[in-house]
Amino acid sequence: FIQAAILFQQLSDSTRLKILWMLLHAELCVYDIAKALDMSAPAVSHNLRSLRQLGIINYRREGKHVFYSLAQNEDARHIGHILKDAFEEQWQACEVCDQKGQDSAV
User: Fold this and answer.
1) Distance CA 40, CA 48 (A)
2) Which residues of 35-45 are buried (b: 16+ CB within 10 A; e: fewer)?
């Protein structure tokens, strides 16, 4: 129960939900996420670190940039399905996600 409580605590943050929603649709770097959310890159990085510690997002380095995506594990898939069910009809994909393409699938 402790691990589930930690997961739900981290997911109760609206910024983290927005980030997960974006990563559900595209692989993005910190700067793209920061621009879309009108936040500073350090603030976005802090939230991404929390999500990485939960094991629900992956990252890869390409030169100086770090790109993030939704992890391919059971927890991430469940969260992706929940986000899609909750927000798909209400929330249009952000401009950054449209520009990057919607290649990832849940």
Assistant:
1) 13
2) bbbebeeeebe
Residue closest to 51 by CA, chosen among 81, 9, 93: 9
The rounded distance, in Å, linking the Cα atoms of 103 and 106 is 10
Helices 74-87 + 14-25 axis angle, to 10: 100
Rounded Cα distance, 7 and 50, in Å: 10
Beta-carbon contacts of 12 under 8 Å, excluding residues fewer than 6 positions away, are none
pLDDT tens-digit profile of 50-94? 999 989 999 999 999 999 999 998 888 888 888 887 776 655 544
| pLDDT single digits (tens) 6-23 | 777 777 788 998 999 899
Assess whether pLDDT exceeds 50 at residue 106.
no
CA–CA dist 33, 1 (Å, integer): 31
